[in-house]
Amino acid sequence: MLIVMTGMTIHHIPDSSYLHFKALQALLRQSQLEGISKQKRHEIHINQNKVTINDKDYFFSPLVCDPLLFHYNEQGNISKAFTMRCNGYKAVFQLGSGWISNE
């Protein structure tokens, strides 16, 4: 974590693993929305720093996540509820809607 002080204001600059974690969440949300718009199921496999969505690989180094396998159906519903854990960060995926909330 880097803290920068400018005058009397303190600014928190997030570390790169947090930024990668947020980018991963955005990619998963994009996949869900694309599945809805194209009426297509999206298979997702997360294994450490690699995410595979419908046979296309994405890498999120230095992020390391617990392995997960799930899918979004054609209506955007998620196949199971779970907590995604990466580098100490957590995101909870709700059953059905697939909404993501951070812990």
Please give the structural blueprint.
Layout: E1 2-6, E2 9-13, H1 16-38, E3 42-48, E4 50-53, E5 56-59, E6 65-72, E7 82-86, E8 89-93, E9 100-102
Antiparallel strand pairs: 1-2, 3-4, 3-6, 4-5, 7-8, 8-9
Give a description of the structure.
- The two termini are 18 Å apart.
- β1 and β2 (9-13) form a beta hairpin.
- The protein is of the alpha+beta class.
- The protein has one helix at residues 16-38; strands at residues 2-6, 9-13, 42-48, 50-53, 56-59, 65-72, 82-86, 89-93, 100-102.
- A four-stranded antiparallel sheet has the order 5-4-3-6, covered by helices on one side.
- It has one helix and nine strands.
- The protein is 22% helix and 45% strand.
- The model has no long low-confidence stretch (mean pLDDT 87).
- The longest helix has 23 residues, at 16-38.
**Which word captures the global form?**
globular
User: Roughly what is the average pLDDT, rounded to an integer?
Assistant: 87
Order of helices and strands: EEHEEEEEEE
Largest sheet: 4 strands, antiparallel
- List the strand order in the largest sheet: 5-4-3-6
Observed structural traits:
103 residues; alpha+beta; three-stranded antiparallel sheet; 1 helix
Outline of this structure?
With 103 residues, the protein is α+β, with helices and mostly antiparallel strands. 22% of the residues lie in helices and 45% in strands.
